[in-house]
């Protein structure tokens, strides 16, 4: 398999993971497991950003690398509004809290709002990934 084909498959793989995480978040929301929703939403954004960066021949082993590159490639360049960079950062902080802070809880309305924003984030990001939109 050629390198370009492998890259395309990897981009599609990470995007599929993003969509699966969003679907998982919906199931967790319906089960009223709001902390798990935030975890899944963060990973949806992380995998989506990973796909978008790979489309630009960039890949990273650490979450911090993906976040920094995302800001550099999409926010600082104006491809996405600064609010989307803040959203990504905020989801990262939420995920840190739900994974590492005991007794943390989140309100249903907040989680529902984050879910709606995550869907919009992925929609906007999808349009910036030629490997996904040129099919």
Secondary structure topology:
Elements: H1 3-30, H2 34-55, H3 63-75, H4 82-100, H5 108-126, H6 130-133
Descriptive keywords:
single chain; 6 helices; mainly alpha
Characterise this structure.
This protein has 135 residues and is mainly α. Helices cover 78% and strands 0% of the residues. The chain contains 6 helices and no strands. α1 (3-30) packs antiparallel against α5, α2 packs parallel to α5 (108-126) and α3 packs antiparallel against α4 (82-100). The longest helix has 28 residues, at 3-30. The chain is globular and about 50 Å long. The two termini are 19 Å apart. The model has no long low-confidence stretch (mean pLDDT 95).
For the sheet with most strands, the description reads: none
Radius of gyration: 15 Å
What number is the mean pLDDT?
A: 95
The chain-level structural class is mainly alpha
Please work out how many helical segments DSSP would assign: 6
Q: Which residues sit in consecutive blocks of at least 5 with pLDDT less than 50?
A: none
How many individual β-strands?
A: 0
Pattern of helices and strands: HHHHHH
Approximately how much helix is present in the residues?
over 70%
